[in-house]
Amino acid sequence: MRLLVLVLVHLTAANKTLTYFEKYGYLNSNGTSLTNNIKDAVTRFQEVFGLQVTGYENEETLKLMDTPRCGNSDEGIAPFSVNPLVKWNSTRVTWNMIGSGIQYANIVKRAFYLYSKHSALEFRRSYSNPTIMVVISPKKHVAYYLKSTCSYDFDGPGDVLGHAFLPRPWLNQSDIHLDFERGLGLYN
Question: Are the C-beta atoms of 6 and 56 separated by less than 8 Å?
């Protein structure tokens, strides 16, 4: 009986790892050997996040996988790299917010202030035509810079805190979406 419980625990953990790596762009089912794919996925994950690269799920890797994070896929992300062609058209960036969590405007304002202190960007709130729209919403929500429903639903009080998008140079706009049910860390 004890062996059966251990096997079930191991299978549940393996399924959680597979789901995580598929969700965040490290693994897909393209017909190649599953063992090689998983080892490659673990290796890539460890590289991207600056962990010791072993290719195996060690304690440090599993702990990071269990940490709340951005909901966007990591696919195409190189370790510690930024595309120099994707940037704001100006060092003055405006923002506004809408959604269920509008009462958190002061927290968002303080976050932008902190970012301003450590970057060349200056953030100011603007109620008309902001370059960043902060959306605090549960589950399904709107991507305002695309003027359509966002493709990435929130998971409620799960692991995804939110997601953001790089600025679109032709629009000079972007969105930051935060999961209201995560409560900006207030309901954990």
Answer: no
Distance CA 180, CA 157 (A): 9
Q: Give the pLDDT confidence of 33-62 residue by residue, as tens digits.
A: 455 578 888 888 888 888 898 988 889 988
Structure tokens at 158: 């799960």
**End-to-end Cα, the chain, rounded Å:** 35
Q: How many residues does the chain have?
A: 188
CB atoms within 10 A of CB 81: 9
Contact criterion met (CB below 8 Å) for 96 and 133 = yes
Q: In terms of Cα–Cα distance, which of 160, 161, 163 is closest to 177? A: 163
Token pair for 5: 């419980």
pLDDT digits over 100-116, tens only? 677 888 889 999 999 89
Q: What tokens appear for 167 in the block?
A: 């600025």
DSSP string, 13-64: HHHHHHHHHHHTTS---SSS-HHHHHHHHHHHHHHHTT----SS--HHHHHH
Comparing CA positions, the residue from 146, 151, 148, 153 lying closest to residue 180 is 153
Both structure tokens of 30? 């393209």
Contact 48, 77 (CB under 8 A): yes
